[in-house]
Amino acid sequence: MTHKTDMNIFAQLESEVRSYCRSFPTVFTKAKGSKMWDEDGKEYIDFFSGAGALNYGHNDPIMKENLVDYIMNDGITHSLDMGTTEKATFLKEFKETILKPRDLNYKVMFPGPTGTNTVESALKLARKVTGRTDVISFTNGFHGMTIGALSVTGNSFKRKGAGIPLTHTVTMPYDNFVSDELDTLEYLERFLEDGGSGVAIPAAIILETVQGEGGINAARYEWLKKVEEICRRWDILLIVDDVQAGIGRTGSFFSFEKAGIKPDIVCLSKSISGYGLPLALTLIKPEYDIWEPGEHNGTFRGNNHAFVTATAALTYWKDDQFEKKITKQSERLYSFLEDLVASYPELEGQVRGRGFMVGVCSAKEGLSEKIAAQAFERGLIMETAGPKDEVFKLFPALTISDEELEKGLQMIKESVEATVNPKELVTNG
Amino acid sequence: MTHKTDMNIFAQLESEVRSYCRSFPTVFTKAKGSKMWDEDGKEYIDFFSGAGALNYGHNDPIMKENLVDYIMNDGITHSLDMGTTEKATFLKEFKETILKPRDLNYKVMFPGPTGTNTVESALKLARKVTGRTDVISFTNGFHGMTIGALSVTGNSFKRKGAGIPLTHTVTMPYDNFVSDELDTLEYLERFLEDGGSGVAIPAAIILETVQGEGGINAARYEWLKKVEEICRRWDILLIVDDVQAGIGRTGSFFSFEKAGIKPDIVCLSKSISGYGLPLALTLIKPEYDIWEPGEHNGTFRGNNHAFVTATAALTYWKDDQFEKKITKQSERLYSFLEDLVASYPELEGQVRGRGFMVGVCSAKEGLSEKIAAQAFERGLIMETAGPKDEVFKLFPALTISDEELEKGLQMIKESVEATVNPKELVTNG
Amino acid sequence: MTHKTDMNIFAQLESEVRSYCRSFPTVFTKAKGSKMWDEDGKEYIDFFSGAGALNYGHNDPIMKENLVDYIMNDGITHSLDMGTTEKATFLKEFKETILKPRDLNYKVMFPGPTGTNTVESALKLARKVTGRTDVISFTNGFHGMTIGALSVTGNSFKRKGAGIPLTHTVTMPYDNFVSDELDTLEYLERFLEDGGSGVAIPAAIILETVQGEGGINAARYEWLKKVEEICRRWDILLIVDDVQAGIGRTGSFFSFEKAGIKPDIVCLSKSISGYGLPLALTLIKPEYDIWEPGEHNGTFRGNNHAFVTATAALTYWKDDQFEKKITKQSERLYSFLEDLVASYPELEGQVRGRGFMVGVCSAKEGLSEKIAAQAFERGLIMETAGPKDEVFKLFPALTISDEELEKGLQMIKESVEATVNPKELVTNG
Amino acid sequence: MTHKTDMNIFAQLESEVRSYCRSFPTVFTKAKGSKMWDEDGKEYIDFFSGAGALNYGHNDPIMKENLVDYIMNDGITHSLDMGTTEKATFLKEFKETILKPRDLNYKVMFPGPTGTNTVESALKLARKVTGRTDVISFTNGFHGMTIGALSVTGNSFKRKGAGIPLTHTVTMPYDNFVSDELDTLEYLERFLEDGGSGVAIPAAIILETVQGEGGINAARYEWLKKVEEICRRWDILLIVDDVQAGIGRTGSFFSFEKAGIKPDIVCLSKSISGYGLPLALTLIKPEYDIWEPGEHNGTFRGNNHAFVTATAALTYWKDDQFEKKITKQSERLYSFLEDLVASYPELEGQVRGRGFMVGVCSAKEGLSEKIAAQAFERGLIMETAGPKDEVFKLFPALTISDEELEKGLQMIKESVEATVNPKELVTNG
């Protein structure tokens, strides 16, 4: 492409449903690590990471090399769930590098290559295993946009979009939903134990350990532990949707490791391919792998390009160096945000999150969106979350350098300053 | 990979849900055009085309070159629905090459990159546009495996897998469902016009013009035309699911062109990327593009690798040479199958389909599966379809050479012979 | 009451939902046999029979005497499902007089005392017995107004009133729904036998042998017989809703006797108490009586006043005199209506029904309602039926005298004449 | 009936669903005021009152006289919703005696004559008025057994009986459900106000002020007041199901009077006819009476016998004498039960309820049922309630004499003694 794209092309040809191109109104053309460039050559620091699908940054050189080699050699591209060399390699490496060292034992299912498809497969299987129909999900949970996954998603705007009633689910209060004092699980258990509660024993409880779309709400480890205990007591399957919080985002490969729990089913997608290529996995405890062949499927479930990069991505987890790096930088993220909130009381801000999945919730309506817009102008890609977009959300690549990180944080600080004290902006401008 | 994969790896590590690796028990490693090779170096002719996702064959050289260039230059890989150079290029080319010459006017939506996701988006939108909840689908229709799409899918095994009741849909008889004489649409209209019929006016009617999974059932053009008329009369949206039948499979880019109809919404996926990369499009008449930003979405909706190859694939449609080639070879396919059915009355066979989407339905239970298994042994990849797998299904790449085509057909003939007259097999063996 | 009621009282104090007082705008105060009187002393012939709840006419003298005796002696009035002398008496008499002579063996359940409640109990039980969820009902079927019964009711106005989607039911075409030639059951069976039809094997098929509210549609005996065969073949429970067509209305105690079928569950209400008192019965084949105690119930299920009159009503069935009377007069009804339709081609009329459940369907919109209104002015109570009120419906008491019958028929003739040739009316008036 | 009924008749002829005849295994034949007699001439004190349908006792002499007069004069028995003298009289008297003095303004709807039918009508109307689908109900609420009413009923055994999923309802915790400290309405409001809660703003909130079947749980007045405020704030209709708690049972005609609230819809049945005859009323604020004629109906909605007795019953409410009597005796009930629980710590009992709707909840599984069985043997009719039948429930007629009341209480005391100290029983026996 030698000439510049007319930005109107999207308004003319693409559906009104498009959204990110409205928050980030430019045409991107190139990316590397934590940097992106648009057609004007403007450089951006990426604190968005493709909504969590680019935890290893853009176009990682090893993955890239392996992928190009594979393509050049006419490796199989698309194969549904036939046997291929690349799928076998990935399965073996995933077992050795990820599951075994964590003492986890799961069969791997490849649903259609998106987060919502793995959630749909998990719900189907839990219903099949238990013979029950209902599923308990949590307030502000987000699990996808197809009808099955949307039924366990809390957001009222998204639910309304279904156009039909979303049924067979019960929403329970997530950790800290009502207040800090209230133990929301005491409440949940009363419903399970009382035969007149109107709530049937469910097939499964599905949750994110840290809610992304819902506003960067991190459940306490003891709360997660107690959910697992409730599942065991009532013979309910525990599904952890690790699509966004998994693959290192909270500091460990799986987000639930430090809580010491072992979910019955785990949903993975987004960063599992490493390179931003579509792929999704549903991990299933072997005793629950009672699918009939083809009982759930999807055309693109065998995305060999994604297997190539996903296998390469696993090398990050061969030792604990990567986790240590995340932990260290994560502390910096936290201290920065705590300082920010303290320095700008006008934010009415609260720091939230865990690992590289953090944000600030501002009690002032609309403020977080303004800050994110300011950041974009300064060259930082950052989005908002929560039912009212009340949280600005820091999602750097896990591979980010200290220098890039600081540059991004500086831009956030400036954006907050410019938003909170807009008069100075005018003076400076 | 220098050493051979142990086939057991899939049974050990992959979920029981895997299916194609059971019909085709080998490990594929390389592919080109209409040929595939497994790790033993055995060559196969591909009459399966990745279940319709590889209409242009494997690893088309132009697409390959463009894709590798793009990757080597660190083009953006993953971008959700941000503006990117590649998306803009694809949108423009799709408009110029496909829509304009066919006098079609659609806005383009990118849902999650799978067939079921585009169907889910179409159903949501039709419900939003009309404010109604129900959708009419047809017997033996297949539209996907997530709950919304599964609700309009006919197959009872797949429906049961939902684990919950599938609601807000009414199944009507597809063309020729009851008998050749009965006009199934007269029946459908009685339900719409009688206020006591128990069937509400639906938001949409969704259909495939040729049913793939359902058994290669081709609806007559006049039947399709009449469905469109009924939609207009009752103010119902017409959704054509062209995921499998589209992109040239039946002889024209869209499968509905020759029927002379203009659906309100069109679902595309599978071969739209050309190279087997995950991508899906929902085409929407501009007057119905009333989405709110982000009202339906999916992480991998901006798959730029797929945009690169999809743009390259559009060159096949610059003039009418490609369509002519399909038409010509399609006649050969038909005459071959008609001869086959006539030569082997033991098949109790019926030729079905349109264009490069054809098959033989055998009234003898289990026979088609045996023929497909025989074909695999001989080096031909071919699958079965229909509620009882009663149809063996010929899905060659549209780019196949006459020589490869004849080779494949020859193997089918031998497979039928070996299945129908097994004694000779023993003699020959 | 010595002074006259102000008719406005109903508009002022009663809900807008009231309906019959709009068609019959007067205040009734007394009734006997086939006659009713309003507060002005005007006498009416009753061809309505309380919508089928007064098959024995108003205030039958024997029933009345027994009821008054019972009340005077302080017999138990209300007892839920405790044991009472009157319930025992009724159960024994019903067994001896009705079930035994017809070679039927049913356990008797007393749900809440309305038609919709017996239907709800039947659907619950069929689902429990089979473990399936769906129920097949027919176009223009009417089974009640509570959500379960409404789900199997065809009328779109009534369905819409639910305010929520009505699910777990599939509507199939009733006999003659599409055209006289089409065998609607061939169609139904295709759906059951084809695994891709989208229609699951249901728990039950529910039907009326003659549809009352739906427009006096009488199914042919061979059609009913074939439905029973289909139920047996697929292990589906057959529920006959005999709430309106039962208790002699079509000429025999049960409406299905002449079809030679034995439903698995029978719903009775309306005329079962004989005197117009609320009562409902669900008859259940003993092998399907697998209820847990109290699994379905209702406060007024033990209405002893109704047991007293219901027992008395059974005396009508001790021999075949009553049936013979109905048959004889029914022939008169038919010949009268056939003559009427022939004499008044302007009616564009079609005679429908069976026994004492007959009517004329007029193809002229609004005409039947006008005729019924004319009849009311002349002193005849008669209502309309069908999705567009296109049928005027003759429902005399089974006990009506020949003289009263002729008087009523004469008024219908005059009403037709006055409606079809309104100018003469003016001349005569 | 001169000879005795064989008790086996019910097991032989009546469905397994029968329940009260199992708890009270005898054949009742006569009743008067608070006394019942069986065929052996044994006399019982009635602390059950027909599950709340006999608040004025059995066979009240004035109602009886009016009813017999009406029948003897051939008054209309059954009239659906035609205008009748008796309906007009009742409507006027109800307006004057009940609504006006309480400053309430409601239109009166007559659904089918059972509690579940009035609830179904209320839910339909609330959905129509608001255009919303969901309804919030409370833990341990009981509203009926037809699918619509069952959907808002908490009991898991009864819900499971539906055989299909019960949808469009959300169960919230009733007052004191989780613990005494927790404000369950704070919790409810969080769900309404948070756009990510997964709970949509409902059409209505439905509740009983004192839960009968659910275990005699009385909500505090301030809790009820707060529910009304929440309804006003969010524009939600408030439905009070006063089927069991209404008509004087808690001390005032409507159970909600002392809470100072004005529900939008009130459901009445059970004791509204006064004599135990089937009747139900749905009271609707005039601005919400937007029904179309016949949009909800039921054959027996015009039960004139019930109108006769219901009008007579209203004389109890002409002045405040009746309420004063109830209040006085209610104090006696409470002090008796408090003493009982104190005297028998083995009961692990808790006194519950309000007015003449009281009981003791025993923490010892099965104990309450044993006490009720002992009471029956001694000649007292008393039932149990709660999800595990953990409450024995005192429901005397509101018209009971002090002498009868004391006799009943004495039998309860003896029954508790005999159950808690069974050895003495043996000694005495």
UniProtKB/TrEMBL annotation, chains A, B, C, D:
Pathway: Amine and polyamine biosynthesis; ectoine biosynthesis; L-ectoine from L-aspartate 4-semialdehyde: step 1/3. Its EC number is 2.6.1.76. One of its GO terms (molecular function) is diaminobutyrate-2-oxoglutarate transaminase activity. InterPro entries: Aminotrans_3 (IPR005814), Aminotrans_3_PPA_site (IPR049704), Dat (IPR004637), Ectoine_EctB (IPR012773), PyrdxlP-dep_Trfase (IPR015424), PyrdxlP-dep_Trfase_major (IPR015421), PyrdxlP-dep_Trfase_small (IPR015422). Keywords: Aminotransferase, Pyridoxal phosphate, Transferase. It comes from the Bacteria. Its cofactor is pyridoxal 5'-phosphate. It is an enzyme of class 2 (transferase). Belongs to the class-III pyridoxal-phosphate-dependent aminotransferase family. This is Diaminobutyrate--2-oxoglutarate transaminase. It comes from Alkalicoccobacillus gibsonii. The lineage of its organism: Bacteria, Bacillati, Bacillota, Bacilli, Bacillales. The gene is ectB.
